[in-house]
Task: inverse folding
């Protein structure tokens, strides 16, 4: 009688091969772990635009993963601001190539059931591991606050006319997009993608419910027409829609042995929607926990404290009257660069995050202070 071969037990099985899952698989392999990676469409090409502040990127990421660097991006609130940090737009295809280079053994299939040590796939097979990590993102729940955006890709000359010569615009809250002060606000985001391609995108930072894509498209074209810009009909289009907070059952505070990573674990910044840089930077922390059989590196008490403060910031954004949003961000961009960085980028600096929030509160008008106090005292119920 022939004994069937034993099914392998991997050191780690990672479910979901977006940027977070790929980054974790890449770093786990670099640390010498055996890795199984699981995704329904593991070969699908990433098409989204990813960006980060330069000081957020890990040292192991090759320079070629950055498509463009802007040393002094600007912002418009009630006036013009210069941001004293370098902003990087990532080369999505190169980033995917780097992270895909070594993702372990890849299984093409949909996970239908996860436990801390096994994954059941839709074909009936099972992948077993010492640790299973759920990196499947936030999903598309209408109950979660979402960011939506509609963008067009234009040539640099067209972009220069739209941005009045600024090299890149992180946020432009001016209301030349056909809206009134009472309308849900949206801003223009403009960044170079390559030397000859530039993204102009109308963005609703957070909404519950989110602004529809059709409304954002109308606003973008209205804004550009006001600036004398006509978008060629053949221009590439980018559509963005994702939750900026983790689903309740998948968040960092969930009482479960299931390990999560990326936006699924709450690494999404609720005030900006950014998560790729945090996932790249934090992958090694989780790998060390997996390798050592420990826990707590990814969500130290400092990181949990910062995440709670940022969640409060999200509630403030959702509670603010639309007419006060540009003033709110005016006070943010008036912060010293180190406090801007503390709030936007530093996951383990509750003191800096609190200092940024306190300074904004003191600088704000009575109406904004009232919204902040109501958000602080109210326990959010969905």
Result:
């Amino acid at each position: 009688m022939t004994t069937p071969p034993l099914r392998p037990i991997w050191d780690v099985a990672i479910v979901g091969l977006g940027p977070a899952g790929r980054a974790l698989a890449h770093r786990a392999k670099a640390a010498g772990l055996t890795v199984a990676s699981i995704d329904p469409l593991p070969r699908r090409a990433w098409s989204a635009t990813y960006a980060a502040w330069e000081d957020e990127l890990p040292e192991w990421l090759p320079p070629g993963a950055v498509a463009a660097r802007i040393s002094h991006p600007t912002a418009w609130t009630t006036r013009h601001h210069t941001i004293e940090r370098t902003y990087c737009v990532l080369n999505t295809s190169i980033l995917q190539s780097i992270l895909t280079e070594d993702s372990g053994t890849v299984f093409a299939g949909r996970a239908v059931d996860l436990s801390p040590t096994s994954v059941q796939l839709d074909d009936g097979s099972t992948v077993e591991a010492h640790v299973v990590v759920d990196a499947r993102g936030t999903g598309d729940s209408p109950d979660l606050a979402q960011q939506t955006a509609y963008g067009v890709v234009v040539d640099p000359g067209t972009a220069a006319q739209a941005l009045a010569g600024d090299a890149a615009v992180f946020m432009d809250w001016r209301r030349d997009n056909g809206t009134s002060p009472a309308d849900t606000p949206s801003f223009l985001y403009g960044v170079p993608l390559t030397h000859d391609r530039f993204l102009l995108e109308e963005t609703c930072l957070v909404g519950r419910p989110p602004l529809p894509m059709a409304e954002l498209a109308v606003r973008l074209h209205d804004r550009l027409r006001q600036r004398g810009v006509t978008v060629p009909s053949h221009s590439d289009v980018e559509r963005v829609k994702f939750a900026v907070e983790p689903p309740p059952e998948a968040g960092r505070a969930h009482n479960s042995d299931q390990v999560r990573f990326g936006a699924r674990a709450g690494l999404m910044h609720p005030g900006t929607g950014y998560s790729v840089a945090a996932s790249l930077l934090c992958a090694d922390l989780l790998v060390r926990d997996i390798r050592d059989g420990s826990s707590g590196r990814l969500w130290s008490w400092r990181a949990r404290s910062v995440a709670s403060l940022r969640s409060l910031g999200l509630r403030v954004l959702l509670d603010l009257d639309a007419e006060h949003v540009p003033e709110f961000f005016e006070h943010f961009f008036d912060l010293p660069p180190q406090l801007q960085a503390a709030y936007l980028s530093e996951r383990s600096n509750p003191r800096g995050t609190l200092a940024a929030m306190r300074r904004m509160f003191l600088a704000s008008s009575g109406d904004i202070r009232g919204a902040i106090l109501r958000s602080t005292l109210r326990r959010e119920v969905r």
Summary: The longest strand covers residues 197-207. The chain has a mean pLDDT of 92. Residues 301-319 form the longest helix (19 residues).
